[in-house]
Design a protein that fits this description.
By secondary structure, this protein is of the alpha/beta class. The chain has one domain (about 5-105): Ribonuclease Inhibitor (Leucine-rich repeat, LRR (right-handed beta-alpha superhelix)), CATH 3.80.10.10. Helices cover about 25% and strands about 10% of the residues. The chain has 3 helices and 4 strands; from the N terminus they run H-H-E-E-E-H-E. Strands 1-2-3-4 form a 4-stranded parallel β-sheet. Helix 3 (about 85-100) links the parallel strand 3 and strand 4 (about 105). It is globular, with a radius of gyration of 13 Å. It starts with 5 loop residues before the first helix and ends in a 10-residue tail after the last strand.
Length: about 120
C-alpha cells in the first residue's frame, strides 16, 4: 500500500484510470497533474513517488504536513489554501518550495508565510 490516506488514493486513481488495480510506484510516476481539492485528504504519504507532478491542487482539505512534497522537483504549481498546515510546513516546507520556484498558493491560520 503506497498511500496512508484513502481519499488521496481515490483522487490519484481517477487520472491514472486504475480504479481497482493495485497502485505501483511506476504508475504513480505517470502523474503529471492532480486535482484533489475538497476530497477530505489529511495525509500526503505516497505522493513522494509522483516525481513527474507539475501541478497539484490540494486546497480545501485537512492537510497539516506537506513534507512528502519536498522531493517533487518537477512541481511548478501547488494550491494549498484552506488547509491547517502545521508550523514546520509553514516555516520550512512552503519557503523551500517557493525558493525552488514553485508557485505555492496558501492562506489559512495562523497566516500566510511571507519571504
Amino acid at each position: 500500500m503506497l498511500f496512508t490516506d484513502e481519499n488521496l488514493e481515490a483522487a490519484v486513481r481517477g487520472p491514472l484510470e486504475k480504479p481497482e488495480w493495485p497502485l505501483t510506484k511506476g504508475a504513480i510516476r505517470e502523474l503529471t497533474g492532480l486535482d484533489a481539492h475538497s476530497e477530505g485528504v489529511e495525509y500526503l504519504l505516497g505522493l513522494e513517488y509522483a516525481v513527474n507532478l507539475t501541478s497539484l491542487r490540494l486546497n480545501g482539505n485537512q492537510i497539516t504536513d506537506i513534507s512528502p512534497l519536498a522531493s517533487l522537483t518537477n512541481l511548478i504549481e501547488l494550491h494549498l489554501y484552506d488547509n491547517p498546515l502545521n508550523q514546520e510546513s509553514i516555516d520550512v516546507h512552503v519557503p523551500n518550495l517557493r525558493d525552488r520556484g514553485v508557485d505555492v498558493t496558501w492562506f489559512g491560520p495562523p497566516g500566510p508565510p511571507e519571504k
